[in-house]
Every structure is written in C-alpha cells, then in structure tokens.
Predict the structure.
Amino acid sequence: QVQLVESGGGLVQPGGSLRLSCAASGFTFNMYPMSWHRQAPGHERELVAVIHALGAITNYADSVQGRFTISRDNAKNMLYLQMNNLKPDDTAVYYCKRSARYNNPEVWGQGTLVTVSS
C-alpha cells in the first residue's frame, strides 16, 4: 500500500524554525520526484518546493525561497522540509506529495498543521 505520513508540525513563534518529515512506503521512493504543498484557511493549495528523484534539483515558491530547504534521504525513504525564519503567512496545513509517474497516480499525505503565531 502506497502511503505518505507527514510529521513535525506545530506552533512556532515568528522567526522560529520547524522541520517537517514525510515517511514514504509502498513504492520505490528514489524513482519519484517529491514535493511539499500547503493550504492556508480560505486559500487554495499551493506548491512550496519540489525535489527531483535523486535530489540533485530543487525548486521553490518565491514566497519561501531562501527560508525553506527541501531534502530527501532515499536510503530511509524520507522527505524533509526545513523551514526557517517562519512568518505568520506560513501558517497552513503542509502536505507531501509523490508525483505521478510510470502510469501511477500522484499520492498525497494526510497533512500536518503549522501555526506561526506569537
């Protein structure tokens, strides 16, 4: 069974840091691009960052460039998002996603809530 499970969300003050994790199982992790997305209340889900299968190429939304870092450990089937200098506008539910490839559909995790507030 293909599964993505996020963890690491919580309440943090502005300027603080959090590291999100996404544990993948049920598929060959190192064959798929992975990404983080977020959805704030009343807003559409948006792409935050993407990382290619072997981790050599990453891309970020302008709003998080220079503050967030996406990474992966293919030996552990893990995806990460290091978030620094967090702002109240970063408050959202964060989701990891496996890209659709090889005639297999995209897969989403259940999400983890990040709240940035003083």
In short: Residues 7 and 21 are 5 Å apart (CA to CA). The mean pLDDT is 97.
